[in-house]
Amino acid sequence: MAAATMVGCKHATPDPEINYNVDRFADIEVLRYTVPGFDSLSLNQKKLIYYLQEAAITGRDIIWDQNCKYNLPIRNMLEGVYTAYNGDRNDEQYQAFETYLKQVEFANGIHHHYSMDKFQPAFSREWFEKQVEAAGVKPENFNELAEVMFNPEVMAKRVNQADGVDLIATSACNLYGGGITQQEVEDYYNKLKDPNDPTPVSYGLNSRLVKLPDGTIVEELYKVGGVYGPYIEKIVNLLTEASKYAENDAQKNYIDKLIAFYTTGDLKTFDDYSIAWVEDTASDVDFINGFIESYGDPLGMTAQYESIVNFKNHEASHRTEVVSQNAQWFEDHSPVDERFRKPEVKGVSAKVITAAILAGDSYPATPIGINLPNANWIRAAHGSKSVTLENITEAYDIAARGNGFAEEFVIDEPTRQLMEDYGFVTDNMHTDLHECLGHGSGRLLPGVDPDALKAHGSTLEEARADLFALYYLADPKLIELGLLDNPEAYKAEYYKYMMNGLMTQLVRIEPGKDLEEAHMRNRQLIARWVYEKGADQKVVELVKKDGKTYVQVNDYEALRNLFGQLLAEIQRIKSEGDYAAGRQLVEDYAVKVDPELHQEVLDRYNALGIAPYKGFVNPVYSLETDANGEITDVKVSYTEDFLPQVLRYSKEYSVK
Ligand code: ZN
After folding, report:
1. How far is the CA of 2 from the centre of ligand 1 (A)?
2. Distance from the CA of 602 to the center of ligand 1, in angstroms?
3. How far is residue 370's CA from residue 439's CA, in Å, rounded to a whole number?
4. SS3 sequence, 238-277?
5. Which of 41, 475, 519, 605 is within CB 3.0–4.6 Å of 45 for a Cys-Cys bond?
């Protein structure tokens, strides 16, 4: 997955009728994306998208409950208080309450969506209790819920990744139950796993593992009639409606398989669905809906509810089609040892898409690129689908316009101009190369365990994909293929990458803390490594002007060579399963932060007033019908604001 990067450079054209900057609170900015091309879809495609987006939003409460078992009852109180409140809205307590409500709504729960730390309310428990009583929403277990909200020691972190403690006991997420220990979970799944099975299912993907009072361990499935049954049943009904408007048999087939999976909870059926899904490359409309990514589980097994509905952007997809048609050339010319290259690259299907709805774990904060399915054996045998969400990157781009960021952090006017001209196109190119070639490149030596790099696996994997993209961004092949029109264009992305990795991404970190998130670690690993290795030749320098630090790239070609060297080393580490070397790289370059530079970056950034985290409100779809109730059109609107949207979702999509 590619997380959003920090700076957008200018390219997309905003519509003056639309308010793109929807809300701003705490460390968050809520933006709006549009859905260009929706009106030109056929009526059948519009109906298909309409029912799929209804299905998408219907699973919203599942992610809330998965994130923490107290989230939904706390949300009930917060929304009840907000709706009933008729006191002074300038009151300090109330203002703090409204910020907290927005933070919780944005994070799908009481923990920060990125740092995983619990939010600390800045209003008093006494004030809150009074409001809850006045609003008539005080539950019987108010004291228990208030303890969870106000006591910083209780449920402090949603997903704990720290070494040496029981990760289930120390994580607040709600994916396991009955006080089961990490050891018991590992034993349970190890017993099920057959190391010789060439097509293993994704154990634990859709279940809550629970220890009963008598000590027996049961796996409760997410399915119709099981955990989250009422929600899943509604999703199934909407998918059934959607499948009537499928574009072709292949699409209908995979929708039906997804329904079968939701009905039975059977993981073999999930694999059948994934294969049918990845093999459908002819349809324009596409979607994911279900339990897919497992970043929310400290053990990386159980997936969180997520849905993205989208359709193909034909014009922009030309770019990714050219890249994937040439996948073998890129693999053959990569600067890694021949033994670690794939002799035959297959099944990379890549496209640029327009997102129509974001839901579950992808709402309001969303990835900008996705590469699925996750099962390694399916990827090897049937390929994978890689997508870039271009209307989302455009929305970031529009929002970043004129925010003063480039003026503050980019070293000089020519570099700024280059980023202005080529930042957007090379940024999208980077995402394409990262997703459709980077992750799929290379191979393991025979007998190497794919999980050999353990806790550092995802940082090193993201670094590998980024380095592949960086290395090839500067390759004349991209000009030859018509993907870039200027041999200097890549410098825009190189500069941005180094500035972000060495300095500006630190705005997401609190003073005194280390880097934890895999994408951030990977970026710093790359930037710090090439900075250090190129120090003698002064390839990249940190220079001071008027007391401010800037990144200065002196030799872009040498920088490319360093990216190539690091790619070769990280591919070696992965191919050989060299845990010790991988761990050393991460510890030396990816984790620690220079406190002085960090503080300087924070001060300069805070003076600009830009939020370090961004997310989106969704468009609103509505059906138009004739006198007989027949659907004649589906309309999309871009006027709903953040709190009205989430409050409406809670009201219309909760199963009471
Ligand atoms: Zn990635």
Report:
1. 4
2. 26
3. 11
4. HHHHHHCCCCCHHHHHHHHHHHHHHHHCCHHHHHHHHHHH
5. 41
**Pick from 404, 407, 368: nearest CA to 386:** 368
Which distant-in-sequence residues (6+ apart) come within 8 Å of 361 by Cβ?
Answer: 63, 108, 293, 296, 304, 305, 306
For the chain, the structural domain boundaries read: 61-156+623-653, 313-616
Is the Cβ–Cβ distance between 12 and 31 less than 8 Å?
A: no
- State pLDDT tens for residues 487-535: 999 999 999 999 999 999 999 898 999 998 889 999 999 999 999 999 9
Q: Evaluate the CA torsion angle 572, 575, 581, 586 in order and state its sign.
A: positive
| Gap from CA of 374 to ligand 1 centroid (Å) | 12
Instruction: Determine the longest span between alpha carbons in the chain, in angstroms.
Output: 77
For 253-273, the pLDDT digits (tens) are: 999 999 999 999 999 999 999
Q: Which residues contact 269 (CB under 8 A, 6 or more apart)?
A: 257, 260, 261
1 alpha carbon – ligand 1 mean position (Å)? 4
461 C-alpha vs ligand 1 centroid, how far in Å? 7
Identify the three-state secondary structure at position 637.
Answer: strand
Task: Give ion ligand 1 contacts, CB < 5 A.
Answer: 1-2, 462, 465
Cα 320 to averaged position of ligand 1 atoms, centre (Å): 16
Q: How far does the centroid of ligand 1 lie from the alpha carbon of residue 456, in Å?
A: 14
Eight-state DSSP code of residue 350 = E
Distance separating alpha carbons of residues 294 and 269, to the nearest angstrom: 19
Which residue is it, tokens 């960021």?
405
| Single-letter amino acid, residue 541 | E
Report pLDDT digits (tens) over 208-217: 999 999 999 9
For residue 370, the CA-to-ligand 1 centroid distance in Å is: 8
pLDDT at 9 > cutoff 60:
no
